[in-house]
Structures are given as structure tokens and as C-alpha cells.
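Posting for a labmate who doesn't have an account.
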Amino acid sequence: MRKVGNSNTLTVPNDIKPIAKEFDVFQGRDGVIVYVPKHKNPFHDETFIKSHNLKQSEEFGGPLIGEEIPKD
């Protein structure tokens, strides 16, 4: 690991070919560092939302009660 400005830099070996250009990074309790390719959240994409029916139907039927009643 190298210090570059205010960041730490980890070198990736040449035999690892990244499939993405941007990553989210997380560190586990045991010190493991994990890089995960960034993906768009489809639930924040208006086109995706308009093209999919995201309403949940009740598994067992019957009337809705409490907080699951939609506020249309």
C-alpha cells in the first residue's frame, strides 16, 4: 500500500482484469477489503419504474390492514 495525497493506493496484479471502471469499497471487521463494481440502482431509474409493475399483491388474499394500505 502506498500513500498518494490524502489516499492510500492498493496495487492490483496484472493477471486481475477489472470488469468495471468504478468500484465501491468496503472493509470487513477482520480487515478484508472488498471492491464491488458500481451499478445503477434500478429503483432510482424513472424509466425502469415506469416500465415495471412494482405493486405487491397479498399472498393469502383478503383485505389489507394497517400500514400496507397504499396511499394513492
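Reply:
Got it, the C-alpha cells are right above this. The chain is about 10% helix and 20% strand.
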